[in-house]
Write a structure and sequence with these properties.
globular; mainly alpha
Length: 309
């Protein structure tokens, strides 16, 4: 458990170094608002779909596919639980702050932060099982998340729910995987290079947004502390208990718990920028939760490893 604590803590610190670079670039005005929006669009529309395609470029095997389906079901249940908790518990007089906190409660940084840790703990199979969580994340983010953060008064339109990079990326990746199609090297190599931007680009964007944020203003509100407790401790602990009750195989359990215990997804700041919401607020929420996750992620993941060992 102590080894897991230090491994997760080190990974989070690595990410914070990249965040710090974005923060400095924002402070010295080498990055501005238009550049931040442009990088956000690059991540949403290109990098994230490429990441999914690369994760699913593997042989279709019975055991791993069965475990993947189990991980998929577990991720779906966890997201439904998160949504129920967010809608029931997270409340604020300010509608924008309430929406942002509900989004942060439901959606963890299951790709940007979880993938490196899943690789360190489990190898490539950890990323494969972790991608099941990201698959559900994409579907939920571009449906419930889009309804929550996007459009006038949160009105939902069916077109962006179907024709968006999250859903289309999932559809392409799953189709290639289920049909056993391996991309030729001339295509797979640039797609892999683009997918490798999945960690640094969002963290640089977060750093820039943080350079524009007022953290003290974020921490003044009680709803922020409620949302943070749910995101980092209560809901990950509930996910761990559910996985133990249903006796998931150890690699599936660890990959799922790692994904569910991550702090708020960086895509919150990207959605806020895209839909002209309060980016200072959203970047503050993500930054504060990511900072606290240096302690909470090692505790939750270390406990999970101890219980299945």
């Amino acid at each position: 458990m102590i080894q897991s604590f230090f491994m997760v803590g080190q990974q989070v610190l690595h990410l914070f170094i990249i965040v710090a670079i974005g923060y400095v670039l924002g402070k010295v005005k080498l990055i501005g608002g238009p550049a931040s929006v442009g990088m956000s669009n690059l991540v949403m529309y290109v990098v994230s779909p490429c990441m999914l395609v690369v994760a699913f470029q593997r042989p279709l095997e019975a055991d791993t596919f069965r475990n993947f389906c189990v991980a998929l079901a577990a991720a779906a249940v966890i997201h439904l639980l998160n949504i129920a908790a967010a809608q029931t518990v997270v409340r604020d007089k300010d509608l924008q702050r309430q929406q942002a906190l509900r989004f942060s409660t439901v959606f963890s940084n299951s790709g940007f932060m979880a993938y490196p840790l899943q690789t360190a703990l489990l190898g490539t199979i950890g990323v494969f099982y972790g991608s099941a969580y990201v698959l559900i994340f994409n579907i939920a983010a571009w449906t419930y998340g889009l309804w929550l953060m996007g459009g006038k008064e949160g009105k939902l339109s069916w077109r962006p729910l179907v024709f968006n990079p999250g859903i289309l990326g999932v559809a392409v990746a799953m189709t290639l995987y289920l049909l056993g199609i391996t991309l030729p090297e001339i295509i797979l190599t640039p797609v892999t290079w683009l997918s490798n931007l999945n960690t640094p680009l969002p963290m640089v964007v977060l750093g820039y947004q943080l350079s524009q944020a007022d953290l003290r203003a974020v921490l003044r509100h009680g709803s922020m502390w409620v949302g943070t407790a749910l995101r980092l401790l209560i809901l990950p602990a509930a996910a761990l208990v559910l996985c133990l009750i249903f006796r998931l195989d150890a690699p599936v359990l660890i990959a799922t718990v790692v994904a569910s215990s991550a702090p708020s997804a960086a895509i919150l700041t990207m959605f806020a920028a895209k839909f002209d919401r309060d980016t200072a607020l959203t970047s503050g929420i993500v930054a504060v939760q990511t900072l606290f996750s240096v302690i909470t992620m090692p505790l939750i993941v270390g406990l999970a490893q101890y219980l299945v060992s």
